[in-house]
Amino acid sequence: MKKGTIFSGMRPTGRLHIGHLSVLENWVRLQDDYNCVYGIVDWHALTTSFEDVQALQNNIREIALDWLSAGLDPEKSIIMVQSQVKAHAELHLLFSMMTPLSWLERCPTYKDQIQQFGQQGKEINMYGFLGYPLLQAADILLYRADHVPVGQDQLPHIEICREVARRFNHLYQTELFPEPKALLSQVALLPGIDKRKMSKSYGNDIALSASAKEVQEKVRLMVTDPQRIKKTDPGDPSVCVVHSYHQIYNVDEVEEHAEGCRSAGIGCVACKKRLAQKLEEVLGPIREKRHELMARPGLVDEILAEGSKKAEALAEETMAQVRSSMGVKGPLEG
């Protein structure tokens, strides 16, 4: 028997990188214990990329390929595209009628991201961006999810979702919506190869779909202890990007490599070579699965269409009750 229902999603901004892998591994584990709906939330992508939409459809397909290659199973989970289930927009609109503006304005990520994007010369102070957490609440509550796997930074958004559920249930004297609980996942926070935050825009990421040669090159460029000029110089693993990756992907040997660094018993070249081998053990099977999927034209689109159809059926069950509670009718209701 399943423990409950989960909704989680990602914005389609292109191929995923190794920093996303721990999230996907968690999703794969959860699909055995929960009824999972995993959404490619393309409307959310528009809140910050509304001026650049040429790659959106390709990005949707790329992220779907990454999900399936990492182990998400359409036989176990519903894998869908947000914009293909119009009820996401309808529920967001209806929620906007009853949600105080102050709830959205106080969200800590709102002002932080406006400032962050502003420093990049990008204006995102739009109605859609302000309403991002409310659309997220609609995404979750549309499937009456009672659990949401998130990182610590998303907890304020989950709390808004819980407040919306409580307010709706109170206003309309119903118990339609559960108050979703956060499933805090232990997400590995990997730095980029240059020690900055990992980002495709910085070019410091390792794509999940990277070839063995690309992985080797990325590892070769990883920043190490700047004080270690020669192999015979002792190093400090705590300031080395390579060590950060060994801690996650080479647990059995990490102390051996750390001690070798401190004692100058192992050089950076050898340390990097071993890391590249360990990363290939992880990424190789994902890459092979991706190639299998790409060799079957139309399969990914079929999976997304079928998943969205299943999601739409679940969503309509919820929306029938929402409309009834709020005194409005659907398109096919007399």
UniProtKB/TrEMBL annotation:
Task: Decide whether keyword Transferase is in the record.
Answer: no
Q: Which UniProt keywords apply?
A: Aminoacyl-tRNA synthetase, ATP-binding, Ligase, Nucleotide-binding, Protein biosynthesis
Record-level Gene Ontology MF annotations: ATP binding; tryptophan-tRNA ligase activity
InterPro entries for the chain: aa-tRNA-synth_I_CS, aa-tRNA-synth_Ic, Rossmann-like_a/b/a_fold, Trp-tRNA-ligase, Trp-tRNA_synthetase
The record's catalysed reaction(s) read: tRNA(Trp) + L-tryptophan + ATP = L-tryptophyl-tRNA(Trp) + AMP + diphosphate + H(+)
Query: Which is one Gene Ontology cellular component term of this protein?
Result: cytosol
Q: Name the Gene Ontology biological process terms.
A: tryptophanyl-tRNA aminoacylation
Keyword check for Nucleotide-binding: yes
Its EC number is 6.1.1.2
Leading EC class: ligase
By sequence similarity, the record places it as follows:
Belongs to the class-I aminoacyl-tRNA synthetase family.
- Protein name (Swiss-Prot/TrEMBL): Tryptophan--tRNA ligase
Please name the taxonomic classification of the source: Bacteria, Bacillati, Bacillota, Clostridia, Eubacteriales
